[in-house]
Amino acid sequence: MKAGIVEYRVPYADTDQMGFVYYGNYLTYFERSRNELMRTWGFTYKELEAMGVGMPVIEANVKYHAPAKYDDLLTIRGVLTELHGVRAKVSCTVMRGDVLIAEGWTMHVFIDLATGRPVRIPQKILDTFQASPEG
Amino acid sequence: MKAGIVEYRVPYADTDQMGFVYYGNYLTYFERSRNELMRTWGFTYKELEAMGVGMPVIEANVKYHAPAKYDDLLTIRGVLTELHGVRAKVSCTVMRGDVLIAEGWTMHVFIDLATGRPVRIPQKILDTFQASPEG
Amino acid sequence: MKAGIVEYRVPYADTDQMGFVYYGNYLTYFERSRNELMRTWGFTYKELEAMGVGMPVIEANVKYHAPAKYDDLLTIRGVLTELHGVRAKVSCTVMRGDVLIAEGWTMHVFIDLATGRPVRIPQKILDTFQASPEG
Amino acid sequence: MKAGIVEYRVPYADTDQMGFVYYGNYLTYFERSRNELMRTWGFTYKELEAMGVGMPVIEANVKYHAPAKYDDLLTIRGVLTELHGVRAKVSCTVMRGDVLIAEGWTMHVFIDLATGRPVRIPQKILDTFQASPEG
Questions:
Q1: Which of D16, D20, D70 is nearest residue B13 as measured by Cβ atoms?
Q2: Which of A88, C44, D39, D98 has the highest local Cβ count within 10 Å?
Q3: pLDDT (tens digit, 9 = 90+) per residue, B9-37?
Q4: Which A positions 43-72 lie with beta carbon below 8 A of chain C?
Q5: Looking at the partner chain, which of D56, D59, D113 has a beta carbon nearest the beta carbon of C63?
Q6: To the nearest whole percent, how much of chain A has pLDDT over 70?
C-alpha cells in the first residue's frame, strides 16, 4: 500500500519543559505524512481544495509509546486504511529508528468547501485507492 | 463533580487557511482545562512535579463536531472520569455558547519523574477524587 | 492612551525543554493584546476583515528580558504607537506582576484583502486614534 | 561562510485564515536553520547543553517580504553574523525558490545553564567561527 513518508527533525519549539515533544504536536506530524501520502497519489491536498473539496478531520486518536526529544530525526508514515461513503481514515506512525514513538489515526469527511456539506469521494481518489493492492 | 473551566478567546494564530481552528490545537485547549481542574483540587500540576511526580499523556482522543473560528470565545471544561491503578482519565468539552465544538479525553499515567517509571497515584489526588460525590 | 490588555495563563504547550516559554510564542501573545486593543476601539479585527481590509505584519521585534514559566499568569498589554500613511505600529509588553518578561512591537500595513495592495487607513481607525489624548 | 540550510514543506498547521504562514512561525523556521548551522560546526545545540551551556535568545527581529503558503517548499538559511563578548547573532532568510519570503536575526547570549549567568563563548565555537574566511 502506498505510504506518505516524511523525515522530520524535532526543533526546540516542539519540546516542553519535561524535555519531550508536546503531545499536541503529533497531530501536526500526522498531517505532514498525510500531505506526502496524497502526493504519492499524483496530486496534492492543495489541488483537492482547488477542486472545491476539503477533508476536515472529524476524529483523531493518538497513542504515545515513547517520548521524542529535541533534535531527534523522526520518520512519520501515513497510510489510507479506510475509504467508504464520504469518509477516509489515515493511520500514522512516528518512529525514531526502530523505536515506535507514537501511532494513531485521523478520520476525515469529504466536504464541498462552498457549502460545508459532505460529498462523495472524488473519483480521482477512489481510483487511486482501488488501484492499490491492499486498497 | 469538580470541573476545570477556562474561557478562551481564539487568536488568529490558532486558525488555519480553512478559516477554522487547526485540529491539533484542541489538545492544548484540553490541557488548559486540566490545569484549572487540578487547581480546583487545591494544588497545581507544577506542585505535583515539585513532588517528583508527572502525568504524561499515553493516549488522546478528539471528536470534532463544529468548527471554531477566529475571535470565538470558547469555554473549555475538563473533568476527571477515571482514576485507578496508575492511571487517570480526563474528559473535556469545548463549547461556544450552547454549541458543542469538540469533545475528547486524555489518558495519563502517573510516573516518578526521576526514574520515568509508573507510580501509585499520590494520596492527595486520591483523597480529592474520593471526596467528590461522583468520584 | 487606550490599551488592549489580556491576562494569560501559560500552558505546558508554550514551554520548551529549557523550562521557559519558547521565544516564538511571544508573537502570539502580542497578537492577543492587539485583538483586545481593537476591541477597545469599538470594533474587532474580524469586522475590519469583513470591511475588506487586513493588517498583515511587515516587521516584528521582541526583546526578551526574563523567562516566563509554566502556569505563570501573564499580563499582555498592547498600545498603538504609530499611525501614518498606510502603516500602524503596535507596541507590546508582557509582564508577570511587576516583572517585565518581554517587550516589542509589530509594524502593520493596511491592505485591500481583494487585491493585496496597500490602502489608506480606514477612517474609523483614524477617528479612534485621533480621539485618544496621546494619539 | 558556513550556513545552516533546511528545506521545509509548509503544513496546514502553520497557515492562518488569511491563507498565509502565521507570522510567529518564522521564529521556529529560524531555529531550524540555527540547529543545522551548529551541525555544520561539527556539534549540536544538544551537545552544547550537555556541556552546561545554553544560548537563549535575547532579541529577535523579522521582516516579512512576501507571504508563504500551504505546501510551499521553503529554504531556510542561517549564518553567524556576530560573535563577541558573551553574544552571538544569527541572521536568517526564508526563500521560496528565488523569492525572498522573510529575513531577520536573533541575538543570543551564552549562559551557564546551572546558574543562568552569562559565560564566555566556548572555545569550540570561537575556533569554528575564526576558521571561517569571513568570520
A1: D16
A2: A88
A3: 999 999 999 999 999 999 999 999 999 99
A4: 69-70
A5: D59
A6: 94
